[in-house]
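Example with several molecule types.
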Amino acid sequence: MGGLYLIPTPLGDQDPSEVLTPQVLVLVQRLRHLVVENEKSARKFLKAAAPEVPQSEWVLYPMNKYTDPEALKGYLDVCTDGEDLGVLSEAGCPGIADPGADLVGYAHQKQISVHPLIGPSSILLALMGSGFNGQSFAFHGYLPIDKLERKSALKLAEKTAQTEGQTQVWIETPYRNLSLFQDLCQHLHENTLLCIACDLSLPTQWIETKSIGLWKKAEVSFIQKRPAIFLVSGGQPKRKDFSF
Amino acid sequence: MGGLYLIPTPLGDQDPSEVLTPQVLVLVQRLRHLVVENEKSARKFLKAAAPEVPQSEWVLYPMNKYTDPEALKGYLDVCTDGEDLGVLSEAGCPGIADPGADLVGYAHQKQISVHPLIGPSSILLALMGSGFNGQSFAFHGYLPIDKLERKSALKLAEKTAQTEGQTQVWIETPYRNLSLFQDLCQHLHENTLLCIACDLSLPTQWIETKSIGLWKKAEVSFIQKRPAIFLVSGGQPKRKDFSF
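Resulting structure tokens for the full complex:
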């Protein structure tokens, strides 16, 4: 029986051999069957990560929001037939704010072994870089678009951050970053700490944490159209929990 | 002005050159000032990651629950004096279920640039490997020890998982794994999905997802004393959110 390998990819246009582990590169060179979010970006990645393997040797299986669950389950026949199967999202870690989780779920149902691999995650890098509590945190994906729903989601998250010390984390579609920034400044308290982290792991990476009061006076137009993570502080970590 | 570099370390007794990126190894070879959770494990890591650098060249600064906040702030003088400063936790990513967040917070206050680096996180690997919703998840650290508090925390988390689709994640002190497992089986519904992920990124890695009903019939005594992550499903990801 083959296994299912979750393969992280660079978060931008970087050399895979600099930002991935040798373990991942060796695996990519070995696998021939890959479930991919986007064929074009997958082929570009494979060319960079394993240039010596002819493109024709890879069998790619599409995975997107239109992929039928039965088709996804069918891909796992590669494993039951005895070969390993890889999963690639467009950037970062499959299954984390990216497709892949469904396929992993089906693999568990079929008792196929699942192998997540070490690699870049913008959420994790942002949390590390924020200085916020990394012993309790919640990632919410996108905030609601509707103005009233968004406001109440933000107010609830700020309250949870304050009362439970839980760091609150969101992503945003890059062209909406400034609009989200304005909403954060409008709805959160002056003293609430906000971290904005752009272009994580890229040469242009930029991470800043300050109070909403100070953000209101900051010039941030350059965050527009850059991949960004937004985090709201849940206070300092409880130091007694350091022992893990 | 120097920067603050958050350096991940292997999750077990592995060769750093296999499970870390070349970017991290190059950085470790360059840095001479390091804030470390544990001096003994830090020296062992440095010896493996940069064998050509004499141990005497590294200046190590202790960081643990007894470290005075003023001392932590003082370490950042390395940066204001123009040199880069690294941070190492015992295993995994500094600041994520590990010390380091306070120091990062002080760095932001002093406008020192913060550089989180790509590397192993057992929480992230477990989430990828679970097949659970990676578009909405909460990491809670440890569950309460008190039996009644623990029960109500588990019930609340299960409800949040069901109503909001948010994956719930905990760590446990390895020698208490079986006790936590029994509590999960006792307090969660038969149909609730639980993932247990042990020894992440290690050769002995073991990840399984199934319903509480099936877990009750499973033999799991081998999870005791192994580093483990426990996850409860918040249902399937909302596929409309795949676009990030």
